Request: fold
Amino acid sequence: MEDEYLIQPVEETRMTIFNSAIDLGTDVSEICIDMLQDEGVVKDIPVLGTVYKVGKIGHSVARLTFIKKVLAFAQEMQRNDVDKNVLKKHKELSLANPKKYNSELEILIEYLNRQVGCEKAILNARAYYLYLDEQINYQSLQLLWEVIDQLYLSDKETLIRLYENEVFTEEDEYNQLACKRLSYCGLIDFFNGMPAQDFESNSVIYAKIASLGQYFCETLLLI
Reply:
């Protein structure tokens, strides 16, 4: 049991995501993991409740960092859901059809477990909320989660610059390695440092924001 992050990871993650008691006034991503061992901080959150039940065996760093990411995910979901009640609706649906939602949460848990820090957890939450709010379908959610998983967070600046400029020309300074990685994620069109003719602007360019990159910036990054 010592090697398990949670006793029932899917159920407790689901309960935490749909928990309206999460404090929106405190940014979970800024809480030191040491504070998660303080039962008085967030003891009423289901994902932490289990930790206190099995906590007599000690809290591993892996367990605490995973819990922090789940909490950051849940907090972002709650922030998006203010006055919309989307989470309440889907809590009821998840209880009515647990097999479907458990499968989704298993995939989410895999992503959260291997990703470092809370920033990707927050991006994952924004994508999941788009799905629950029926703005995207499940296939699009899977695509966004995969892109988030592949994204180097250090490349965000390059992506946002290209989103704002739409293209990089020979007059622009840019990080070629970042462009290669962003191109691999499908977020931009990059031509390996070679010039290309852009027929829309009738100019020579070296990189261009892709439609997926534009959507990614507008719905996940720049909100």
Summary: The longest strand covers residues 188-190. The CA atoms of residues 73 and 125 lie 5 Å apart.
